[in-house]
């Protein structure tokens, strides 16, 4: 189970389901709030129309018992006088809360729809209970726009002229009991000044049953639909991610097989798409190709190194064995020469190993290529060194480069050795500055390098003239080492042709 939920497919499915669940929850909440607000607004309009209809009749001085009935049974109406007592109310209204004056005791019918409450005519003293309930109702029901709170509109009430209806409509939630049935209502309160009875407040309520029913229905639909929708989202995401990740599993299996068989010639399958998985497969195959090339080059290197080491060792052993058997025949100069050659070959192999391991130049060290060229040319009578003036001012130093003095010296020595082996009479070294680089050119007057072989000569253990003796031709590592060192120093090493047809090696290094 832990492995299953640890997969990318499981995490993607859970993540998508969670995001959709949050979005659906937010959308559902917004829908419910919007629906409730819309239905409440409709109830406000109905309640206000009923209150103003009754207020208009009262403004004309219509008696309580002659107020026209309201056909809509979903509304209740109550008229409260200036003393906070009920003056008239919808027939069978037993109790009202949240607006107007509570009706704690039964009353007699005195009209069709609206009736005057017995014993509570204008000027009558309210009882203690009625007064307390009137105060409570005034505190609950006189809020504007649905907000409950105390009504503070004495100035507006006092400013009403006889027969005038107040412009302000106050709204509040409440409940009413009509003929034994209690329901929630949205109440609207409108002030009116009756020409005879004085200031009156009309409370009209519109039933909220439709709103409550609609909200409950919508909530039920959401509670049933949301889990089904989430299940569909989870299932679709699971199938889609399974299909999308199927090539990844194929890549994994093939990589496991390559690792088990140690066969770098195999490649992972590349899907026929243009997505990230296809790019991953192509990059993996490129990596495998690079590894295969590296391993093959390492194998050739080991084989060539073994072969190159075997020759001087065998020659040296033969000479020593002859010397032991016949001391007079011992070729001491030849033994020394083979030993030196073996020493140089071992040093070259060790340097290549360090370069392959990523060894770079020493940070912060600076080398003057002109001075280094003069040092390497010393003791070579057929080599001449010329330093061209620097660009900033005539006579200035060509420039210094950052790097290892020993490794750069080895580059120049290898280039000079190669040039001397192929030159007819002279080798020329030129040091100059070109832009932000120092250029060191080593030219000879030999036969040059064929254009087709100008890159191959930088490979390890490559000798173009296979008929040359090993003592004259070397092991074929000098130019390979020179290019590797140049690249490690951020430079380049290329070969071209001199005007006379000889070889021209050009070493470019960035100025420090």
Topology diagram in text:
Blueprint: H1 2-5, H2 8-59, E1 75-81, E2 86-90, E3 93-97, E4 114-116, H3 128-141, H4 154-158, E5 170-178, E6 181-194, E7 198-207, H5 209-261, H6 276-325, H7 332-356, E8 366-367, H8 369-377, E9 383-387, E10 401-402, H9 405-422, E11 427-434, E12 437-444, H10 470-473, H11 478-488, E13 492-497, E14 503-510
Parallel strand pairs: 9-11
Antiparallel strand pairs: 1-2, 1-7, 2-4, 3-5, 5-6, 6-7, 8-10, 11-12, 12-14, 13-14
Helix pairs in contact: 2-5, 6-7, 7-11, 8-9, 9-11
Order of strands, main sheet, comes to 3-5-6-7-1-2-4
- The overall strand count is 14
Q: What's the tally of helices?
A: 11
Main sheet specs: 7 strands, antiparallel
The H-and-E topology, N to C, reads as: HHEEEEHHEEEHHHEHEEHEEHHEE
List the quaternary state of the chains.
single chain
Helix amount: 40-55%
Task: Return residue spans where pLDDT drops below 50 for at least 5 consecutive residues.
Answer: 104-155, 391-396, 466-471
Coarse shape: rod-shaped
Alpha-beta content class: alpha+beta
Q: Rg from C-alpha positions?
A: 52 Å
Distance between the termini: 59 Å
Strand content: 15-25%
Number of domain modules: 3
Mean pLDDT, rounded to whole units?
79
Descriptors:
3 domains, 14 strands, five-stranded mixed beta sheet, Heat Shock Protein 90, alpha+beta, 11 helices, 512 residues
Task: Describe the protein.
By secondary structure, this protein is an alpha+beta fold. It folds into three domains: 39-213; 276-356, Signal transduction histidine kinase, dimerisation/phosphotransfer (DHp) domain (Helix Hairpins, Orthogonal Bundle), CATH 1.10.287; 366-510, Histidine kinase-like ATPase, C-terminal domain (Heat Shock Protein 90), CATH 3.30.565. It contains eleven helices and 14 strands. The chain has helices at 2-5, 8-59, 128-141, 154-158, 209-261, 276-325, 332-356, 369-377, 405-422, 470-473, 478-488, and strands spanning 75-81, 86-90, 93-97, 114-116, 170-178, 181-194, 198-207, 366-367, 383-387, 401-402, 427-434, 437-444, 492-497, 503-510. Strands 3-5-6-7-1-2-4 form a seven-stranded antiparallel β-sheet. Helix 9 (405-422) runs antiparallel to helix 11 (478-488). The longest helix has 53 residues, at 209-261. The radius of gyration is 52 Å and the shape is rod-shaped. 28% of the residues are buried.
